[in-house]
Specification:
This protein is of the alpha/beta class and 137 residues long. The chain is 55% helix and 14% strand. The protein has one domain: 5'-nuclease (Rossmann fold, 3-Layer(aba) Sandwich).
């Protein structure tokens, strides 16, 4: 696989939980191909969502920190900025998506990613040059 991939929080959560072992294995195979290539991207929002959901599921704080470190070591992190917020506002208006989804899309675009890997958005949807890919579809 080539290009840059922005990985949404739901994908990381499958990797770190046993809620769906089939999806966990698919995510692991997908990420194993990309880890170490410098082509994985996330934003601080992704960290917050993953961390929050893991704690809600009762995952130990030490284990949650180790999982966050894994994301950080595997991915480049897109910083939050006012420009990103403005871009998200524009995307939200043009594409009728939620505020939180617009921030994810804007962060992926800021990182110049070609693909946003997410289970939450429509597979094949395009936001300008960004393609949404649901690896489970």
């Amino acid at each position: 696989m080539t290009g840059r991939y922005f990985v949404d929080s739901n994908i990381w959560l499958y990797l770190f939980t046993n809620d769906d072992l089939g999806k966990k294995n698919m995510v692991k195979a997908f990420l194993d191909e990309l880890i170490g290539t410098g082509s994985l991207y996330v934003s601080w929002q992704i960290f917050n969502e993953v961390w929050s959901n893991l704690l809600k599921k009762g995952v130990d704080r030490t284990e949650t920190l180790a999982m966050a470190k894994h994301i950080r070591e595997s991915s480049e992190v897109v910083d939050f900025s006012f420009d990103l917020l403005v871009r998200a506002h524009d995307l939200r208006s043009r594409h009728a998506i939620s505020f939180w989804d617009s921030l994810v899309v804007a962060a992926a675009m800021a990182a110049d990613c070609g693909t946003l890997v997410s289970e939450d958005m429509q597979d094949g949807k395009r936001f300008d040059g960004l393609l949404v890919r649901n690896i489970f579809a």
